Amino acid sequence: MGVKITRIMKLFYGILASFILLSGTMTNAEAQTYKIYVQQIPQMWKKTFDQVLPNAFQYWKQKNPDVSFELTKYPDPSDFVIEWSSQFDESKTGHYSSDTENYYDKPKFTVPLAYLKAGKLKTVSPEFATEIAKHNLGHAMGLSHSDDPKDIMYPQIENYESWMKVNTKVSPKNTTGDWKPKAEKLQAQLGKKIDASEAKFSALIPSINSTWTTNKASEAEMKKAQNIIFVGRKLVSDAESFKVDGDDLLSQAKYSDAYYKYLDSMNRIKSLDAKITEIKKMFNKAISLESPK
Ligand SMILES: [Zn+2]
Questions:
Q1: What tens digit of pLDDT does each residue of 192-225 get?
Q2: Which of 62, 83, 116, 157 has the fewest CB atoms within 10 Å, counting from its CB?
Q3: What backbone torsions phi and psi does residue 54 show, to the nearest 5 degrees?
């Protein structure tokens, strides 16, 4: 009899435990709403960039349906603030900061919409602004950086200059011609090129990561070189995935699309070559700063 009661009790506690567990899970899955104050976007850029935030919000909602974003009328009730900027440099103005020592008394991040180049103000592409917004929303939601160059939280996005260079769209120069041999030729070149540049790049990494610096000047150079390695990894990853996309298009007989995908991939690899040269220069400078003659 006693045994039987214990069994029933066990069963009861078991059900109770799973109920608590379940309700716990339900609490965790409760909708998380982020309240955001968005600085008014300058009138002249409204049209170009009006989909940046809706697209960035949509991106995270698709990843996590329990997340939602609500815009507030004033900064005060918001969790964080999003600003737009008309200029940026290597100082990472876009980066999310939880520091509230600012005009709004709120954590904030900035989406750069334009930058100065040779004295002229140029707008960034809406795609770039959207990538920045997505990445920093991730930070605002508590995510840290990812090691995966395909992940939106990969830190490369902070290197605006490089991102801008590699993401300039190539517009088709002509719409006639026989695309099939053109695409196939580029495909063959690309295979070899990616392998060669990637090998050169990979060979550089161990020396950058294992060299010990003993003074500030040389350390600064090494840091720069290390930052460019992040960019390089992203370029390799993009080049490879565009090549795969190109192969896929080629197999579907979409020859001109394949050609331009391959061209995109080739541009990434050429950018990688430029980065390799930069890294080497910085590395050599760091070494010379280590042992001044
Ligand atoms: Zn970041």
A1: 999 999 999 999 988 887 878 888 888 988 888 8
A2: 62
A3: -50, -40
